[in-house]
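Final report, closing paragraph on structural work. Over the funding period we assembled a curated collection of sequence-structure pairs, and we close with a single example.
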Amino acid sequence: MPARGKVYLVGAGPGHPELLTLKAARLLERAEVVIYDRLVQEEVLALTPPACERIYMGKPLGRHDSRQEEIHQLLLAKAGEGKLVVRLKGGDPFLFGRGGEEAEFLAAQGVPFEVIPGVSSALAAPASAGIAVTHRDMASAVAFVTGHEAGRESRLDWSALSRIDTLVFLMGVHNAGRIARKLMEHGRAAETPAAMIQRAFWEQEAVVTGTLADIEERMQQAGIQPPATLVIGEVVRLREKLEQSDRDLRRRRLNAPDLDPAPGPGPLFRLAASRAAAEVLSLALELDVFEYLEAPRTAAEVAERYRFERERTGEFLESCRALGLVERQAEGYRNLELASLYLRRSAPHSLATLFACQLRPPETPLARYLAGEEGASGAGEGCTLCAEAVASLGAGTLAGAIELPASGKVLLAGWGGEALAARLERRWPRLEFERCNPLAGEAIPRGRYGAVIVSLGISSCQRCEVEGLLDALARRLDPGGVLFVQDLFQGSGAAR
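Its predicted structure, as stored:
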């Protein structure tokens, strides 16, 4: 008998990587095979290892039943290879996700499986739009309903549904008008509020509100496309109240995320600690190989560009491949996510300068300078770029770890001020941000601030220098103001 692996039926939530459960994220980091639907964002798939086999099995319109049988057989085949298989489904696998059918099939075939719940769009989409599906004064009951049914005969009791406070219809874009008419025919008032939420927590998120009488017309005018969620009930009126408040409803939308990019740079630091890997990485960074491999290149093209011997160039590229930095395609070698995100100098989260400085051999000018030799050039520029790179990388983590006043002025002192300001301005558009870097010789402004955020390398400074700087910055605080300190080289958390 073939070996049996294990299948995990995993809910990916509404798509945003921060809305995965911890267990789902950890499984993705270990997965050998991922079979996924169309409602899964690339940022979620980026959590998988470079060698993970990704198989797209999204169901096009009109082929749901035939494609489902293909999925069953694929799960059986990959589990039969003894692999850890993640069946990644949008939302929750057991809420209109056909996860129940897949679980039945696996049980009948004797394949070990486990179900990992996910955040359903039935809850996430209304929340993203500022709608609570239950409310003490408006709704004591909520029903989740499919917008289309498997059989021709409807199994829905429209009379009963029309009496439920809040109704949430999933996959109901094409039937929104029919749903509204059925509810009105069974006694629901035509002026009942309704909202259609398109692609919640995705970049294309859009919300249209109206009533049962006009929601179909409004969504057609707005060009709403699947996937979208229809919410019906008095709770839809909450959206207007919450939208006009200072609440940060859009903090976690994809177009303004406070995220560390995925995958994280941890593997690169481990590679840098290995002598053999460090030599390969150092040479690749010195030659800007990862800039060149953002598009597929053959070994011959790489050899010609750098005037290398062709056979040895192939060995070098295979070494990069073994380290998980590049992949080999039919068109040639190309960056994997890790190299694309962190090792290209033009990347927004580039750590190329940091690693280039760390991996320089002892005979470099930097090493002679540190040894005290006369005439050797210093490392000021390189260290400055390193500090800026680390601070910019940690800007998202820091922005998500602090709370600032709703209005007023905030001073960003130290490294990475520009990247941090860009993050914070999206979260607190009413705040006024000023930047300075005393560590680079810039003067501290004379103004007063409700908060001061400092990014510095405490481990690379004298204690008296740090204390003096923090004292000077603290004197710029308004009464009751807050001073946040982040040490770039001792951890990425924020100390309050």
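Residues 64-80 form the longest helix (17 residues). The CA atoms of residues 110 and 360 lie 55 Å apart. We thank the funder for supporting this effort.
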